[in-house]
Known about the structure:
This protein has four helices and no strands. It has helices at about 10-45, 50-80, 85-105, 110-155.
Amino acid sequence: MAPRSTTERRSPMCGVLAVKLFFLGWTRFVVVLLVLQVGLAGWGAVSGGGERTMRFIGHVGNGGMLILWLMLSVVFALIARPGWKTVVLTALSAFMIMMQGAFAYGFGTDGVNGGVGIALHALNGLGVLALQVVVARRAKQAVDAKRALKAVRSEVPA
């Protein structure tokens, strides 16, 4: 392949692909953070007393960051334009992660109500993880589709 001259411009397709690739990487990063969040919750759950509180600090801190990361994900999804379903799923993930605090603390911490709240907190967290895996797969499909379109456009007719 011949090197490009300085006057030759990059196609707008390269910029679009780069944005979609960034969104794909971002969604994978968020999935890793969500898996870490589940691990931190489990680590805190298997301990007792003061040690339990100290272990849950990591879970709470990462959860706060996940709220920020998922709100940024909505912005990045709107910029990357991977499809309206992907944007809606990303927004739903952000809404669900914001509900986590209400589930964890809104039902109280003792008795049956506290148990129901923690159960909803855990199920909702796993739902966010599942949604983000779907979003990452859809982002990958968007990247693959853009690469295929770019390859078709760059073919030289015989």
